[in-house]
Amino acid sequence: MPITVRPYIPTYITVHLGPPNSDAENVTVPFPDYIKNVASSEIYPTWAPSALRANILAQISFALNRVYTEFYPSRGHPFQITSSTAYDQKFIKGRNIFDSVSALVDELFNDYIRRQGFVEPLAARFCNGTTSQCDGLSQWGSESLAQAGRNSLEILTTYYGNDIEIVVDAPVQEIRTSYPGTAMRLGDASPSIRIAQFALNRISQSYPAIPKIIRVNGYYGPETQAAVRAFQQIFDLTPDGILGKATWYTMVRIYTGILQLSELVSEGQQLGSLRFDYEAFSASSLREQVSLLQYLLSVLSQFYLDIPFVTIDGIFGNGTRNAVIALQRSTGLPETGVVDEATWDVLVDRFLAIDRTVLLNDRFFPFRNLSPGEIQESLARQPDQFPGQTLTYGQSD
After folding, report:
1. Which residues lie closer than 8 Å to 289 by C-beta, 6 or more apart?
2. Helix or strand or coil: residue 144?
3. Domain spans of the chain?
């Protein structure tokens, strides 16, 4: 989807066997099987290996772009991609799969193309290059380049530019919808709200009637409510200021369209554009910041056995101090028990490494004993830089 910053390989993908609005069957298949089918339908198994690799990477990237941008779900469809070559890429239900294609897909299915410095998988369009022409990869042209000795990356850069890169070994997980499942309204706090705030601010550049949200902090305050209501009025939604499913997916669709994330020529979503903002500590908010510190340490304790679990109570007591010391010891920092800038940087780096790979997987999420509100408030304030004040033993408010 266009708001998340962590593309992944879906375990399964649902294909509509016809144009988007047709009354056709939907089939759900494992993602590698989908790519094997597309590759067997689109290209010849006798082509040079570098041409096959280039084409398969393009097919993977195009499909992942459809998943990432929620291209069809944001338009109300219960599928991720179609089998219509007028819109997507060819898929033939029940067709035979070529052995050479199958072996390559098994190797490549969790790799994809993206622009350097951007997040989203490249919308790697292609055509056969003989009866049809396009701005993307020429299938027959790729085979000619392969015969001339070009490797797969050289073939891809020929068609998509020198600013692309190959992401390898992307995580595999079930498709997760971007909508959090419940409507968001005044007084709520969650990471999803911060995502919406970011998206609405970008949309407002093209629709100035939407007021800017100054504090992009995950809290649904009056200015977020005003921006949501203005957005709803512009796009003929019920202007109730509540961010429900219809409003959310309209926002996703408009955001994707403005950035052209589903096009080859895209503004792109930069890797740092959705970083975790964090405000400086203040006397009135210190207990909340200690709670956040404890939350991050608690996550790390599930993956680093030398860091003890801490209770999230907003009080910097012995348990929290011992966990900080354990973190410092494991990373070679002075064992002061004080969360200075160097300690904070290590803490955040380790948390983000976990968050990118496993934290979104429910079976790894360790804090079911917390209320949803507590988890949301913690996540809404996730940091990406040292807040500017050390935390020490005994602090709470």
Report:
1. 281, 381, 387, 391
2. helix
3. 9-170, 191-259, 286-380
Per-residue pLDDT of the chain (397 residues), as tens digits, is 343 346 889 999 999 999 999 999 999 999 999 999 999 999 999 999 999 999 999 999 999 999 999 999 999 999 999 999 999 999 999 999 999 999 999 999 999 999 988 889 999 999 988 888 888 999 999 999 999 999 999 999 999 999 999 999 888 989 888 898 999 999 888 778 888 998 999 999 999 999 999 877 778 999 999 999 999 999 999 999 999 999 999 999 999 999 999 998 888 776 544 433 333 322 333 566 777 788 888 889 988 889 999 888 777 788 888 999 999 999 999 998 888 777 887 888 788 777 766 655 555 544 444 444 554 455 454 444 444 455 555 554 4
191-259 — its CATH code? 1.10.101
On the 0-12 / 13-18 / 19+ scale of CB atoms within 10 A, 272 is: exposed
